[in-house]
């Protein structure tokens, strides 16, 4: 019998050149994309079994953009891909049938919605959804929304590139934890790519809506990337601990700052800071690790027991912290 390869992998993160993504330059396209994703997400919600913390509803990064992954309706298995490379929507079934339509230079949300339901209907997998946005400033029902139709193809490609890279770094970081952890997934509610770690202990019941209550039934430290919004501005990486322990904002971060957000406290690292760093992945990983250590320490998590026995080694962590502290930031282009 051949023994499995037990060599510890090289966890040195890749360092690459990342594109710019200023919010103002693609805001109309971002809003249109956000609404497209909400429609896909609601179809996923209607065709998957419920899971704790709403893990049955997010989308996922794949090699072409965003995907629902495998869905089921009646006796058919299918998936929907929002292709950010060829700017198209593709529906595939397990028996080999395909339906698709292009996005051109932008489809009104109403046309996107109608086109997707038509494609699903032609394959026998169409489902009814609540045809209205959730938790966003836009409130027009999808079938009536002709306002949001912008599609900056270059900005969309850049966003897809950033999602792909961020997803890979989050996956690297996710491997450092052996407790309960979420997949790396994109929540279409706020259009953020996120991953969450759990202490294993229940949290106090929140006096909140049923979506929020289910999301925070247990103690968590979450991490993510969002492409920007009116509250916090341009694209950024973030972390928060819930429930937030006292004194969290006084803890040191390898990069970024603590920021008040609503009733909570966020560790925020601007995407531009990561993009212009000499070692972007090292900078991001150091930020994530320092935010985790701050929250876990003050919330009295069993941090030693939750460390992965596989990677990284203590020496790799030490080098990561040193590299982040010593790495100069490149000035942003003027």
Fill in the keyword field for this structure.
6-stranded antiparallel sheet, 7 helices, 334 residues, alpha+beta, single chain
Distance between the termini: 60 Å
Task: Estimate the strand proportion.
Answer: 15-25%
| Count of spatially separate domains | 2
SSE ordering:
HEEEEEEHHEEHEEEEHHH
- Report the structural category: alpha+beta
- Report the biggest beta sheet as strand number plus sense, adding barrel if it closes: 6 strands, antiparallel
Mean pLDDT: 91
In total, the number of strands is: 12
Helix proportion range: 25-40%
Q: Would you identify the regions where 5 or more consecutive residues have pLDDT less than 50?
A: 1-8
- The DSSP helix count reads 7
Rg (CA only): 21 Å
Any idea what the shape is?
Answer: globular
Structural write-up:
The chain has 334 residues and is α+β, with helices and mostly antiparallel strands. It has two domains: 23-144; 153-326, no CATH class. It has helices at 23-46, 109-122, 153-174, 210-215, 271-275, 280-298, 314-326; strands at residues 60-61, 65-67, 71-73, 76-83, 88-93, 98-102, 185-187, 192-202, 218-229, 233-242, 257-261, 264-270. The strands form two sheets. Strands 1, 2, 3, 4, 5 and 6 form a six-stranded antiparallel sheet that branches. It has a six-stranded antiparallel sheet with strand order 7-8-9-10-12-11. Strand 5 and strand 6 form a beta hairpin. Helix 6 (280-298) crosses helix 7 (314-326). The chain is globular and about 55 Å long. The relative contact order is 0.13. Residues 1-8 have low confidence and may be disordered.
